[in-house]
Amino acid sequence: MSDTKTSLFTTIKSFNKNFWIASFMELMERWAWYGIYTLLGLYLVGSTDTGGLGFDHIQKGNIMGNIVGILYFLPLIFGVIADRIGYKVSLIISYIIMISGYYLLGEVNTYWSVYMVFLLVAVGAAFFKPVASAIVARNTDETTGTMGFGIFYMMVNIGGFIGPAMSSGLRTTYGWKIIFVQAAIVIGINLILLLLFYNEPKVEKPKNSILEAIKESILGIFEALKDVRLGILLLLMIGFWTMFNQLFNTLPNFIEDWVNSASISNWLNEKLPALGSLITQDGQVKPEWFTNIDSLMIILFQITISFFVIKMRHINAVIRGAIIATIGIGLTFYSGSVWFTIIGTMIFAIGEMMSSPTVSSFIALITPKGKEGLYQGTYFLPVAASYFVTSIISGSLYQSWSDKLSLLKKEMAGRNIEMPEVVTKEEFIEKGSKALNMSISGFEKQFNLKAETIDWTTVKQSFTDLASSKSIDINQIHFPFSKNEYFALAEQKLGMSHWDMTNMLWETYNPNKIWFVIVGIGIFSIISLAIYDKMIIRPLEKKAAK
């Protein structure tokens, strides 16, 4: 017993300065990333009168799905580059790119500008991802590796909890743009820490060129995928990760659209006003706090869950975790009940804690000796692929089945109630300038559209007068009208309160039916993994036992 305790404390004390710097930098990088990403879906489709961009869910799905998919593919290349130019130089490049990207993300407001700037952030994050892990690996050994990566994983989740918590408070007090400034500052702290305290040890760098190394890396991945055990496992895990992604890419929007959390909000503001002011807004609990339950659960219970998982076969743990996660994510979308959302997220977190870390461990178990790095390098392939699938579910599928604005437009049209088009300021400027044959900058100057406050009544009159003087038809040009304004006008014309209208849409269109797709993907993954175990893994285990 004493040996175990001594070993534990001795192991922790044995980690050098670079290990702790890398672990802290991971915490800060996750703080910046999740401080943005957890709230990004809300920001992208948010009403323009509250600082959101007013995008539709198809645009949101493309930005949050496709770009993150690219992010998880890039480390296969960037890790090879980092080995040759050095980790410190790689991190400097990564941080400069991320600082620029995060700051600019709060300054752009059109679809393609947001898409390209977020892609810039992804490139910086992809440069960071393999380097931080490599520094930890370089500063641990066979006896300290498990503890080292356990601490590293804990840092990931601490950062993943702090980031959204900080952004949630900041965006309520100062508006949306401050969360992007926060992310840039957090990465700036990482850059200062790197420059002042990280000393890169002298190591022999690979002698082949970067292009040769990238080619070898890609060919090695294809070689590894020829292993049936690995290739099929990674293919099946696409479903699991697609289901997991809904927690960040789809659930916050579903909560904002359909979950009435007024009872919890009222209780918090009455009994715990300090906490209520942080996590509630406009009489509702902010959606990002429901998602953050997942990170909090991992921080509190990962060690306990891991203890129980150790006693299971690896593949059994993955399958059982997938079953629990499927039940949890299904509950969050099944009902508009706030308690289903909370309990479902907690159940999902338990499944995630069982499955996610175990997959990497299982890959290690089936890895031929001497190919550990190669096989572990394939871990992010199903994660990357899953984001491309997620872009469809959280994008076009949600837009069609579950987006409250889309369903309300359909309802108003079905009742023959005339409503204005929902149009952003940027869309008006783009179409208005084109109609008047003016440059965008000239159009903005003509109608003083860069002013901090805009008198839209004056703008409408001036725009109409100018178009009339030029005999230009502007009937197809719609003036800015926000999502919130559309909801308010619809409530007025229907003679309903906001939540009465929401309940009417729920009962009419069943927006929760998206849960069939999400849970269906989970069930398919569970059945496929069970077949994989029976047909491939168990026969190999029996063969090895003989």
Distance between the termini: 36 Å
- The averaged pLDDT comes out at 89
Number of strands: 2
Stretches where pLDDT falls below 50 for ≥5 residues? 1-6
SS strand fraction: under 5%
Strand order within the widest beta sheet? 1-2
Radius of gyration, in angstroms, nearest whole number:
26 Å
Helical amount among residues, as a percent range?
over 70%
Largest sheet: 2 strands, antiparallel
How do the SSEs run, as a string of H and E? HHHHHHHHHHHHHEEHHHHHHHHHHHH
Structural class: mainly alpha
Shape: globular
Q: What count of helical segments does DSSP give? A: 25
Give the helix/strand layout.
Blueprint: H1 2-14, H2 17-45, H3 57-73, H4 75-85, H5 87-105, H6 111-138, H7 145-174, H8 177-197, H9 210-225, H10 228-249, H11 251-258, H12 262-271, H13 273-279, E1 280-281, E2 284-285, H14 287-309, H15 314-334, H16 338-365, H17 372-376, H18 380-401, H19 404-414, H20 425-435, H21 440-446, H22 456-469, H23 483-494, H24 498-509, H25 514-545
Antiparallel strand pairs: 1-2
Helix pairs in contact: 2-3, 2-6, 2-7, 2-8, 3-6, 3-18, 4-5, 4-6, 4-9, 5-6, 5-8, 7-8, 7-14, 10-15, 10-18, 10-25, 11-14, 12-13, 14-16, 15-16, 15-25, 20-21
